[in-house]
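step: validate -> pass
step: tokenize input -> pass
step: predict -> running
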Amino acid sequence: MAVLVDGNELVLTGTVGAYWFEDGFSASDVSGALARLGRDSDITVRLNSGGGIATEGTAIHAAFAAHKGKVDIVVEGIAASAASIIAMAGDSVSMALGAVMMIHDASTIAFGDAGELQKRLGELDAISGSMASIYADRTGKPAADMRALMKAETWFTAEEAVEAGFADEVGSAAAAERSEPSAFAYRSYANAPVPVLALADAHGWTVNKLLAASAAPTAQTREKPMSATPKADDKPADLDKIRADAAAEAVRADRDRRAAILALDETKDRETLAEHLYLTGSTVEAAKATLAAAPKASAAETVDNYDAERARASGLAQPGAAQPKARAGVSANSIYAARRTAQKGA
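step: predict -> pass
step: emit ->
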């Protein structure tokens, strides 16, 4: 559905950054909706999402944080994973009666040798650290406490979310009519509540369906159906050529996306994170927002020193080898606090 705009209300339903269950919204969808509404307008965001792509969630959070008008966010149904990050951008956050919220560490799929996997671990830790800082900024609690909750995959009822500081109030009973969670493969989560799992089972929201949908063309790229009745002068389609052309175009598009991400000004001294964002399917716009909020890497972490990083990582298994220092998580407290003070207090 992308983003539904109704007056000064934005309705965000489905998967963050993808269309795995025929319903979702992206950072570019949200940015376009905000541009139509005007940067100074007060808005209400009705959010119902089981999660999605973490970097898309942080990009949408950044878009709402930069909005000059007041942003009231109402969680209807669920705000899990990446969607919970979006909720933290509200000047006020309301949980519909019966709605739930979930926070957890970022995850990815990776392959490669020990050096490659060690790099991915560092990148995931940086993203999760940035998310923990966003939660900490909202709740006023230490980022380390937030990270502990994330590692445990913590679920909150509406009342618990308010008590923990993630939300400000529980909505009225009238708002609860729209509080059923949106489509998602909730069995992919370790601690999903039994009622949420039952809902997913009843609707057939399975992990297999999610994987099949994620491999299929998205709503943004899906081709229009061909006419069932061919014209008299039509020639039979060369399916092999069509497939080959489509594959070549996909490769070109992917190459262009990588080049665009690596060419961003925000990529400088953040090359490792930029490469990770490309590999995890981030759009150029989402990557730009995430990179802008991330600290610059030290000289030892840049792409220019990639071979040295691999050597150090492989040295972890060698007796007597020096152990690498733990990489600090990304702190976004000052970033978002400064942005909100400068843009909303001006």
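step: describe -> Residues 239-333 form one domain.
step: cleanup -> pass
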